[in-house]
Amino acid sequence: MTTAIPSTATVYTHLLRADLTTLWRNRRASILVVLVPTIILISWKGLVEKFGGAFVLSNCITVGLTAIGLMGYSNMIARDRDKGIFQRLRVAPASNWTIMASRLTVQLLMILIMTLVIFIVGYKFDGISISAGGYIGGLLIAIVGGAVYLSLGQVIVGLIKNPETVNVTTRLVYFAFIMIGMFGELGVLGKEIGEAVKWSPYGTVKHIVSAALIPSTWNEHSWMALLVTLGYTIVFAFWGIRWFRWNTR
Amino acid sequence: MNNSNHTSSILQVEGLNVYYGSQHAVRNVSFDVRPGEIFGLLGPNGAGKTSTLSAVEGLIKPNAGSIHVAGFSVREQPLHARANMGVQLQATSFQSELTISEIIKLYAGIYGVALTKEKIDSILAGIKLQDAANKRYGQLSGGQQQRVSLVIATIHEPQLLLMDEPTTGLDPQSRRQLWERIEAMREKGHGILLTTHSMEEAEAVCDRIAIIDHGKIIAIDTPQALIDGHRTNPEVIRASRKGKITLEDVFIGLTGTDIRQ
Hints:
The structure holds two protein chains of two kinds.
Chain A: H1 8-25, H2 27-43, H3 45-51, H4 53-83, H5 85-90, H6 96-126, H7 132-159, H8 163-185, H9 191-198, H10 201-213, H11 220-243
Chain B: E1 11-20, E2 23-33, E3 38-42, H1 49-57, E4 64-69, E5 72-73, H2 78-83, E6 85-88, H3 100-110, H4 117-126, H5 142-153, E7 160-164, H6 172-187, E8 191-195, H7 199-205, E9 208-213, E10 216-221, H8 223-229, H9 234-239, H10 247-255
C-alpha cells in the first residue's frame, strides 16, 4: 500500500483545471469585473481626442486591474479559506505554493482577457488604434501592474479573516482607488492630490501601461514608475504572505 | 502509557507539544496507530484532540515532538507523509462550483491516481450516489457529503486514515453505513485514527482508545481494558448511572463532569 507522491506539474495541472472550471462557472462575476472598465471606456469616448487613446486605455486597464486584484482575487481567497477548501487541499500532497500558483495563474489569465477586451472595445467603439508593439507591451505591462493589485489583495486577506469584511474592505479600497486615482489625475481634486496620485499604485501602474501602449513615449519617468510599481508589489507581497493564515480560526 | 516505539506502526507520535501563544494545548503526547487498527482519540471539548490531529495532518507545526506517517516525518517529508494518509476533516468543504465527479477527479489527480469516467461512475455507485455525478457538493445531504468526503479521503488507498468526528450530524442509517465502511477499511489493513464524542461508538468499534484531557493523554488501552482498569475508581463509580461501568463512565470519571467551553 505504498503511495508515491505525484509530480508538482501533475498536481498543478489538476488544481489549475479545477480553478479554471471555477472561474468559468463564476463567469458572471468575471464579466462584472470586466464590465466596469468597459463602461468607463465607452463613456470616455469624448476624452480620446483631448487626452489621447493611450490615456483612456491605460486608465480603463488600471481600473480593471484594480477590480481583478482587489475584488476578484482577495474575495475568492477569503471565501475559500473561510469554507475550509484550502485546509482540505493542504492535507493532500499539494504544496502551499502550488495551490497559490494555480490561483494566481487564473488571475493572470483574467488580466489578459480584461486587457484584450479593453483593446477590442477601445478599437471598436472609441476608434483607438495603436501599434502591434503597443498592444504587446500593454499586455505585458498589464501583468506587471496587475501584480501590484494582486499583492494588495493578498495584504487585505492577510489582515482580515472574515470574508464579509474582506468583501466590504476591497469594495471601499477599489472605490477609493478609482475615484481618487481618476479624478486626482485629471486635476479635479487639486494639485497636491494630483501629485500624490501620480506616485500611488494607481498612478504608477496607469503611467507604465500608458507608456507601454505607445513605446516611443517610454522615458525616465516611466522607468521610475516601473521601479516604484515593482517596489509596491514586493512590499505588499511580503506583508501579504507574512500575515496570511490558511484558516480563519 | 505504552507503545510509542512500535516498529510496525503506521503512525508514530512521540513527545508532541503544541502551544497557542502561552496556552499549552498538547502536552507531551505519544501514541501509535498500527495496521488494521481503529484508534480512538477521545476527550472533552478543548482537550487537544483536534490540535493533535491537526499536527498529524501537518496543518499546524508542533513546538516539540516527532510525527511519522508510514515512516515519513510529517515535518521533514510533508508531501510523502500526506500521500500516505487520507483525511476527513471535521468541516470538509470542496469547491462549490465543481460537480462531485470533478471533485473526485481533482483529488485523484492530486494523489496521482488515474481515474476513467467508468471508474468514477463505479466509485459513485459504490456509495449509492450514481445519480449525483453532476450535482454540486452543496446540493448533497449531510450523509451524502460524508460519503463523498470518505471516498476522497480513501481514493489513494492510504495506509493511514484520519477522521475528525466523522459521525457528527449524521442520521442513524448514515452513521451505521459509515462505521461499516470504516470497519471494512480496517479489514483491509488500513490504520484509522479518529476522534469522536460518541462513547458508545468508540467502545463498539475502536481497538484502542486514548483519553486526552488538558492536552495530556491520561489513559490509553483497549476499551475493555480501560473499563476493567478503572472499575474500582470512585470517580468512575460515581459517574456510573446504568448499574454497570461503561466507557462513558470511565471517560466522565477521568475527565470530570464539568462542561467544557
